[in-house]
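Feature request, filed as a ticket because there's no other form

It would be nice if the structure record came with a short human-readable summary line next to the tokens. Right now we just get the raw output. Example of a typical job, pasted below so the devs can see what we mean:
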Amino acid sequence: MRRKRPVPTAFTLIELLVVVAIISILSALAVVNLQHAKERANQARCAANLKAIAYALYAYRLDHNRYPLADGTAGPQESMGQTTPGDGPAANGSWDGVPRVLVRLGYLSSESYLFCPSYREQFQGDRLQRFRYAYNNSALDTGGPIGAPNNVDRDSHDIWYARCLWVPVEYSFNPSAKDVRYPHGEDHDRENALMSNGRVELRNGREDFRRAFGISSP
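Raw output as currently delivered:
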């Protein structure tokens, strides 16, 4: 009696296509989850940066009996007390930035603390220099300690000291820059803000800006 040959087993074309489809779906989900995890990590690092800025500002005030004035011109050099309209170091060139003197005097250990990690990843070179943390203490030639809408030396109520962006792109000097968006939140509509009591809040920057300047929502 002849022994039957074993029938070779193999995947059919349909089975292979199903496996490939499943792997593709799982890979897409993994990429999305990885991106979300990276964004949450950047948000946490950003909050840590703002906490470090808070300690640096408080220490500077203890030593000098005042907060430092903002840098008003974008670039790698200090510009405390100066302003160049349209070329500010924060908010896409539309606002004054946290002063670099905090780094030079050792209140901050690195200039990386001056930038939101999300913007450091997105922008490079000269473009990055226009995305420092916005700082709520104006440059000397625009009013100094009384020039900002909510001044850190004058106001005692709950105001912001520093934040990721502040000026929405539609109100900036370069409103055509469509690649600029808020760095945090699932819909990229949030920014971290360092408040006067030392806490860091995740806030809707566009709504805060409109409220501060009396601009009605569209």
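Something like this underneath would help us a lot:
The chain has one domain: 14-212.
Residues 145-149 have pLDDT under 50 and may be disordered.
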